[in-house]
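Record type: monomer structure entry
Structure origin: computed from sequence
Chain ID: A
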Amino acid sequence: MQPNQMKRRLSDYLVISLKGLAMGAADAVPGVSGGTIAFISGIYEELISTISNIKPPLFKTLFKEGLKPFWKALNGNFLLALVSGIIVSFVSFMKLAKYLLENHPVLIWSFFFGLIIASIYFVGKQITKWSVGTIIALILGAAIAFFISTLPSMENSGSNYFLFIAGSIAICAMILPGISGSFILIILGAYKMLSDAIHDIDIKKLIIFSLGALVGLLSFSHLLKWLFKNYHNITLAILTGFIFGSLKKVWPWKKTLSWFTNSKGEKMPLIQDSISPFNFNGDNQLVFAIILMVLGFATIFVLEKIGSKNE
């Protein structure tokens, strides 16, 4: 159920935009999910409910009653505040994330490792009743996420149709806690293609990707809304498992087992294995890594506190 929009002040929408900024930054990093941030910050179910309400009857309101009733039924202020933050952060942070992943991988992964550890606790504690079903769902979710994290990257066809499909699949992952949309793009071989499109401001490719994302988002949100309504604890258990299973992907110390060369002649990791920091080839930056893990852990506590205050 969406909150009464009349009760929200400008400061409330600024907080929602900040949550959008955090979601966009998380989604820009392969291995981290913006859906996790949405869940922890207390806006996840409102987001899913709002998106799933975008259907033909809503547009009848626009034509019969006008823009103001349509905007209210859309929960437009919430969407505008959140999506603005996500877009600004995703586009700007994707460039920064690329630089950090190439030059300071241990440090950026350490921060997000701490963030995800805290997320497991905060999502899991919302399960009101544990049963055999929820435990199985937790294990299943963890196994699926772990399996996805082991998949190697693929080459892409470079076609517009492929970019549309990649957008529709990746957006589903982006709104699932624990499943990284950016990592799905890497698996599909579309991450570099989208990154180049953003860097080169390729409007055509960005529109095609966005249309695919819109179709995927509108379709998948209905399923999520139904699952939360009918199988709330089971759904939460699966999502907690997703987050737990994603830990392998964000472990800071990795060893690259094989490489591949993309269409632009750039050498990129194909298969990586998690290793002990003491077996890491090079400076393991252990002290700074631990500090950043703690900061990542603390960030979730802050987001959860903000989320609980605004419920």
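Annotation 1: Residues 142 and 245 are 4 Å apart (CA to CA).
Annotation 2: Residues 76-103 form the longest helix (28 residues).
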